[in-house]
Design a protein that fits this description.
By secondary structure, the protein is α/β, with parallel strands linked by helices. 56% of the residues lie in helices and 10% in strands. Residues 1-88, 102-116, 568-596 and 816-863 have low confidence and may be disordered.
């Protein structure tokens, strides 16, 4: 089905007009402003176009085809007839014809900016609902602001009318408190499973935008009140949460009181009743009182969680939304790296949530401690206070442990940030790392960082494990000390006293369980708020752009001196341990550890006036300040002195194109309304017609992250098309022609810069000096100063540096072209190269128009590059648990670890059983003399075996402490061994994956594995699993006690167990599905943050902050929704299991009533005490089992990556290792080479055959997208060949290990890649060369002076992406890096595109000298750079079109190369 005929038709009719070199007419222009064209556009045969259009009018059946009227925007009106001056408007007519002939169906769909992917369409429609539901925050200090919340106190309310609205907003008191509003969703999950469309959208009161507005108001007030230095984010958070937090604390306090009354009053009276002859009704009253207080406590405790959950998601949304808005107001991240910021969004979101949800529960500890002191004093007297000393000592102990945990966690988070930042950098540079065979070296760096992280994790986990193990044992130890002290003082102890106190101690244990978690949450939350505050307080750029008074002036500089932020390295002071110095990796030593903001002046005393409509060219050497001048006009620099004026809106095209992970069309529109006529003219003007026609789904094809599936030239032209379509008043073009060939560059200059933008103000930075004569004025920069300014003619007449530079450029071109015969008649080149698919025919040398007949079916090729992340279904497979157990040391180790849990809890439980035996023994029938009468004692203190009972009972303290330490150590070692092994395995699998994996997988998704999922496996899975195992042992011991005391309880237990398991099995499905959705919803969020940070300059230039902020808010709301539902589902399960567990207490109490007299009161009291604790711990454990399974989704994701990912060829094949000196000659042979980037994509290299001899210098030319860079991909085996062979020195490279191959080759890539660190680290990451060699390489690449002028020279810092160097300087550093490798074969992929002509000429001389004994393959757009090559390889649609010496090719006027040279000369002479 031919879906993209519109592009074919328009290409047919919109062939670029060719001007004869001798023609008197000026350049042909494309009129997008509706103004009369300066020149006549030749008419085309629109009839054939119409016929072709009608033959291409079929569309996918799922799209509704309907007529849509496209309204032209202001300033873009075009006439249908020739105007009075006879200007032909056939281009507009052809576009109108093409649209009228049937190309309207997709337009109506894509006016909304949707792709053709059904899932994406549904998601976009869902996102639109957020606009309909959202409300705007309005500050209201009156009590009326609570009216919405107060409606929750209405007992029953109606459900929401809209199916997709969050039901909690309409929940009444019953529904809100018991979470009944989520029941229907849980039941649906059990029946059919949950899909994305089943989940309601986020509540309007929980939305990110609403809460961010609210927090921003409070934060701004805090800044005004306290100033920047004294502002406290914690104080702002308190104001943000105050009312709901106080309500939550009040309800929590009431639930604590009820939990205190149950065991201390009703249980004591009930146990005491068991040993009396009081009537049955009395026992019933005490039993009902016990159950009623417990029921009310359960309901109120659930209400506490419900309130805290909403508090947590609101603060989480507000903090991260505020941080994102802050990023939108910055031009760079200052001293923060992308990895650090992404880690803040990934991990600190959870920490902020826990800070609000779990943190407030810390007050439970002091409340129960004070209550315990009072109760014990009343019950047992002052001797029993010895037991309370245990509690009082536990708090300082817990405080110390929490401080240690917080300290280790902070240090761990810092190292985790470093690892994630390094991972982010590796993902960004993975192509270069593979080409340089640096995987092992960088893996060693990551392994070293991971080793330091694991050391800190071990310390943190061990401290936390001890704290977790001690929390449930402290009440038991306290009871032991209390009873021993009380009895040792000669006092009696009854069963009622012992087990009411034991029941109270169990309640205390439940509260103390939250203490370590609460303290950790508070510590980590405070640290996260501190990190967020550091972002919020980062210096924003001070607006310095002013409006000029003269309306004819577009922009002006008056004595302006501007500076950039620079980073200064400070020596890191490291404390050396005695006899154990820190071993720090070489990479770590080079990373920026301490950064201070300083300023370096780069533009000095600039004076320049630019009038409206002027075309100003900016030229100069590398590092002269050209790009800085553009940045100054964007307002991204710091104005030190003078004035900068700017009038009107700007469009910006950066030196390195910024591409969105979206469709081709969405990248151009950038949220602007779709105007078909304007859009297709822009496509043609930017020479993208053939490129779009060749894509699987036309302009609906997804462009990968960072434009991974586009060539450098396509990315640059796409960026330019975005700017032209934006229709701004001023255009700032930073070397937009560097990545395109001469013909395409000339097309863009004539059609865009001189055509579409002819009435716009344009600042044009370029190294392509041939275009300067056609500019209105030229500005020549040197060392940050304007050295010369004027028209080209004036500057040439002045005969200063500019004239010398231009003459050098012209001499180079003339020298390279002197072999060509002057009298040769040059034929106009219809198309240098076709980048269309294999089905497209190239009509070479045909004077007729070229037709592109694209046969693409949407069903076969949807244009979707990025694979949707797979949402796992069903249970967590047993293989996931198996892999975790095997990573943790195997089944034997795991069994031993579980045995330590059984031993620890068993000792704790047996101490209570021993107490019951002691109480049953009573006085041991000891007799007392009272006066002259002998009586039997009823006091335990008089038992003759008391020392034996005391000794055994006291020994349990040491046993419990010892087993707790052993348990904590073994569990920590096993779980961290497991997480570390899983990390190492998934890291190896990811970085051994072929490039196709990185092309189709967003970096945010991979970072999600190494940040959030690893955080889950490192910290949260062990914590949840440890608590789960501990509670399972406690529940087992409790049920065993109840069954031993009351055997009749066994059948009841079976029924309750069946009921519990049914509820768990029903509702764990929904909880698991929601957790999976939450995991998947994070990846787009992280990718969006990463994309935003990389494109801050472009986003700010286009004024698209609102668009990107809105998308962030929606993505965050999507995550918030499933995150909130997951937590509510967990609590939904908890409250119902708590109520069912209350049945256990009810049944135990009933059995105690019915069996009074047949069971000892001491054992009945033991059973009641342990049954009472089940109401809290049973639900928690069942919920923990579900949570553990949910958290194991992270293990499953990591495990699936480890198993599913296909690795590329091995690094080394021992049996096929080449000689150490290979390649000795550097001969390269391509034989019938065919290559495609992925199995489903068309061939990009088509049956290529050629030979390169030793020490040859081969120039590769061809149109953008013709396969030039693909030669390097094939040579380095980034993609394996579909057919054919490549041999180097007669060895088939497909038989070699990748490391053996790639380590012998060198490449200077199209996009310069620098790592965070120092200049030395970037030149020689692994310390293999001396300083002398480094300086020599820098000298050969003309960077020695630049580096030597830096304060720290070779140790000078390089920030993320090398942003503190210009693009040209980065390219030269990359070239110096290649020089140091000294390989026999060098591949230069347009390596000098960003370098000025003069430096380029010098570099070419350096390359000739430094690599004179090497084989060089040079891909270039500047024809003068390949004129001196031994032979020229011309590529055409992935095929070898020509391969001969420059002399031979130029001697044939009809050769493609000769036409390219002619076209370049024409553009020079115009």
């Amino acid at each position: 089905m031919e879906s993209h005929g519109v592009f074919s038709t328009i290409e047919d009719s919109l062939v670029m007009p060719q001007n004869d070199p001798g023609d008197d007419h000026g350049p042909t222009v494309l009129d997008i402003e509706g103004s009369p064209s300066e020149d006549t556009i030749p008419k085309n045969d629109t009839g054939s176009a119409s016929k072709k259009a009608s033959s291409h009018s079929s569309y996918p059946t799922q799209l509704e085809t309907k007529s849509v009227a496209f309204s032209s925007r202001e300033g873009l009106q075009d006439g249908d007839e020739d105007d009075e001056d006879g200007v032909d408007t056939s281009i507009d007519e052809d576009i109108d014809d093409a649209l009228d002939e049937g190309y309207m169906g997709m337009e109506c769909t894509l006016e909304r900016g949707f792709s053709l992917n059904e899932t994406a369409i549904a998601r976009d429609l869902r996102h639109e609902r957020y606009d309909e539901v959202a409300i705007k925050y309005q500050h209201n200090p009156s009590f009326l602001r609570y009216r919405t919340s107060l409606k929750h106190f209405i007992p029953v309310r109606r459900t929401p009318k809209e199916k997709d609205e969050m039901p909690v907003d309409k929940a009444g008191l019953y529904s809100f408190t018991t979470l009944s509003w989520i029941t229907s969703l849980m039941w649906k999950a059990y029946k059919t499973g949950l899909k994305e469309e089943d989940v309601p959208i986020c509540s309007k009161y929980d939305m990110c935008d609403y809460n961010t507005d609210r927090l921003e108001v409070l934060w701004n007030e805090e800044l005004r009140r306290s100033g920047k230095n004294n502002a406290s984010l914690q104080r702002v958070v308190w104001q943000f949460l105050r009312t709901r937090l106080l309500l939550s604390l009040f309800v929590f306090f009431v639930s604590l009181i009820l939990g205190f009354i149950g065991p201390t009053v009703f249980m004591r009276l009930l146990i005491n009743w068991l040993s009396t002859d009081e009537p049955l009704i009395t026992g019933v009253v005490w039993s009902v009182g016990l159950l009623a207080t417990e029921f009310t406590r359960i309901i109120l405790f659930c209400l506490v969680w419900c309130i805290n959950y909403r508090n947590g998601i609101r603060l989480r949304a507000a903090c991260l939304g505020l941080m994102y808005r802050k990023l939108m107001r910055m031009s760079n991240l200052g001293n923060k790296s992308i990895g650090e910021v992404i880690n803040l969004f990934a991990n600190d979101a959870q920490r902020i949530y826990d800070y609000v949800v779990i943190g407030p529960l810390i007050i439970g500890g002091p409340v129960v401690a004070v209550g315990g002191v009072i109760y014990i004093l009343w019950l047992l007297g002052p001797w029993a206070l010895f037991g309370m000393v245990t509690f009082l000592l536990f708090y300082p102990f817990q405080y110390v442990m929490s401080r240690l945990t917080g300290y280790f966690r902070r240090r761990t988070v810092a190292v985790t940030d470093e690892r994630v930042r390094m991972m982010n950098e590796l993902l960004s540079c993975v192509k270069l790392i593979k080409m340089y065979a640096w995987e092992k070296s960088f893996a060693t760096t990551i392994a070293e960082i991971r080793r330091r992280e694991r050391q800190l994790l071990e310390k943190s986990a061990y401290v936390q494990s001890i704290s977790l193990a001690m929390a449930p044992t402290v009440p038991i130890i306290a009871a032991i000390v209390t009873f021993l002290a009380h009895i040792g003082a000669g006092n009696n102890l009854t069963a009622a006293q012992a087990y009411s106190l034991m029941g109270f101690m169990v309640r205390v244990r439940g509260m103390l369980h939250y203490v370590p978690h609460s303290v950790l949450a508070v510590m980590e939350g405070c640290y996260s708020l501190m990190c967020i505050k550091s972002i919020l307080l980062m210096e924003e750029l001070t607006p310095y752009l002013e409006s000029p008074q003269d309306s004819s002036i577009a922009t002006a500089f008056h004595d302006a001196t501007l500076a950039w932020d620079i980073l200064s390295l400070q020596k890191r002071k490291r404390k050396r341990r005695r006899n154990k110095p820190d071993v720090v990796s070489s990479a770590d030593q080079l990373l920026l550890k301490s950064k201070d903001t300083q300023y370096k002046e780069v533009l000095l005393n600039i004076n320049l006036n630019i009038k409206k409509g002027e075309l100003i060219a900016i030229c100069g050497g590398v590092g002269a300040g050209k790009s800085s001048l553009i940045s100054a006009l964007l307002g991204h620099m710091h104005l030190q002195s003078g004035k900068v004026y700017l009038q009107g809106t700007c469009a910006f095209v950066g030196q390195q194109a910024w591409i969105l992970n979206a469709t081709f069309r969405d990248n151009i529109l950038l949220d602007e309304p779709f105007d078909a006529k304007r859009y297709y003219r822009v496509i043609h003007a930017c020479n993208l017609t053939q490129d779009v026609a060749s894509m699987p789904a036309g302009d609906f094809t997804e462009v990968g992250e960072r434009g991974i599936n586009l060539s450098g030239g396509q990315k640059q032209r796409l960026s330019l098309a975005r700017a032209v379509y934006a229709n701004k008043e001023m255009y700032l073009l930073d070397d937009p022609l560097s990545a395109v060939d001469a013909h395409v560059g000339n097309h863009i200059f004539q059609w865009v810069i001189k055509g579409a933008l002819r009435e716009k103000t344009t600042v044009f930075v370029t190294h392509q000096l041939q275009y300067l004569p056609q500019c209105d004025r030229v500005v020549y920069l040197r060392d940050g100063r304007i050295f010369e300014v004027g028209t080209h003619t004036e500057l040439m007449e002045a005969d200063h540096e500019y004239a010398a530079l231009y003459k050098t450029h012209m001499d180079t071109v003339n020298r390279d072209g002197n072999e060509r015969e002057e009298e040769a008649t040059l034929m106009q080149q219809e198309s240098t190269v076709s980048s269309s698919s294999g089905k497209n025919g190239l009509q070479r040398n045909s004077p007729e128009k070229k037709f592109v007949n694209l046969q693409t079916n949407f069903a076969e090729g949807t244009g979707q590059l990025i694979c949707e992340e797979k949402l796992e279904k069903g249970d967590i497979p047993l293989s996931t648990y198996h892999s975790y157990i095997m990573a943790a040391g195997g089944y034997i180790i795991s069994s031993l670890v579980i045995c330590t849990f059984i031993l620890n809890v068993g000792c704790t439980a047996f101490s209570s059983w021993w107490l019951s035996l002691w109480l049953t023994a009573g006085s041991g029938n000891a007799t007392l003399m009272i006066g002259n009468e002998t009586v039997i004692s009823n006091s335990l203190a008089d038992n003759p075996d008391r020392p034996f009972y005391q000794t055994v009972y006291g020994c349990f303290i040491l046993i419990i402490l010892g087993t707790s330490l052993i348990r904590g150590f073994t569990f920590m070692k096993a779980t961290l061994m497991g997480s570390s092994r899983m990390h190492d395995l998934v890291f190896i699998k990811v970085f051994r994956s072929p490039m196709s994996f990185f092309d189709t997988t967003p970096s945010g998704r991979i970072l999600n594995i190494f940040s959030r999922d690893m955080d889950e496996v490192d910290v949260r899975v062990p914590m949840t699993l440890e608590t789960f195992l501990q509670n399972v042992c406690i529940i087992t011991s409790s049920l065993v006690f109840v069954c031993l005391v009351f055997p009749y309880f066994l059948p009841i237990l079976v029924l309750l167990a069946v009921l519990f398991l049914f509820i768990r099995n029903v509702f764990r499905i929904g909880i698991r599905d929601l957790k999976r959705m939450e995991n998947v919803s994070r990846s787009p969020l992280y990718s969006h943050v990463s994309t935003t940070i990389n494109g801050l300059a472009t986003i700010n230039a286009y004024g698209k902050q609102k668009m990107f902020t809105k998308k962030f808010m929606v993505l965050f709301d999507e995550n918030t929704c499933v995150f909130y539902l997951f937590n509510c589902a967990m609590r939904w399960l908890a409250v119902r299991l708590d109520l069912l567990a209350l049945l256990v207490t009810s049944c135990t109490a009933a059995l105690a009533l019915l069996l009074r007299g047949t069971v000892e009161a001491s054992f009945a009291g033991l059973a009641l005490a342990y049954a009472a604790q089940l109401s809290g711990i049973f639900q928690y454990t069942v919920r923990l089992s579900t949570e553990t399974e949910a958290r194991f989704t992270s293990v499953q994701r990591i495990n699936s990556y480890s198993k599913v990912l296909v690795s590329e060829a091995p690094p080394i094949i021992e049996s096929r290792r080449p000689d150490v000196m290979w390649p000795k000659y550097g001969r390269i042979s391509f034989r019938n080479v065919q290559m495609k980037y992925r199995p489903e994509t068309p061939l990009v290299l088509k049956d290529i055959t050629f030979d390169i001899d030793s020490m040859e210098n081969i120039g590769v030319v061809g149109r953008t997208g013709s396969g030039k860079s693909s030669l390097g991909v094939a040579l380095f085996r980034l993609v394996e060949l579909a057919a054919g062979t490549i041999r180097i020195d007669s060895i088939d490279i497909s038989t070699l290990g990748l490391e053996d191959l790639r380590s012998k080759l060198s490449i200077i890539p199209q996009d310069p890649v620098l790592f965070i660190g120092t200049v030395r680290y970037n030149l020689d990451p692994f310390d293999r060369h001396s300083d002398k060699e480094l300086w020599s390489a820098l000298e050969q690449t003309y960077m020695k002076d630049r580096i030597s002028n830096l304060e720290l020279k070779l140790c000078a810092p390089v920030v993320e992406n090398g942003e503190n160097f210009s693009v040209g300087e980065r390219q030269l550093i990359c070239m110096a890096r290649a020089l140091l490798r000294n390989s026999k074969i060098l591949f230069l992929d347009e390596a000098t595109a960003a370098i000025d002509t003069e430096t380029d000429f010098k570099i070419q001389q350096t390359l000739k000298d430094a690599f004179k004994s090497c084989t060089m393959i040079t891909v270039a757009h500047r024809l003068n750079t390949v004129m001196s090559c031994t032979r020229i390889l011309v590529l055409d649609d992935g095929k070898v079109a020509e391969f001969d010496t420059p002399r031979a090719l130029l001697a044939n006027p009809s050769s493609l190369f000769a036409k390219m040279v002619a076209k370049a000369e024409v553009s020079l002479t115009e």
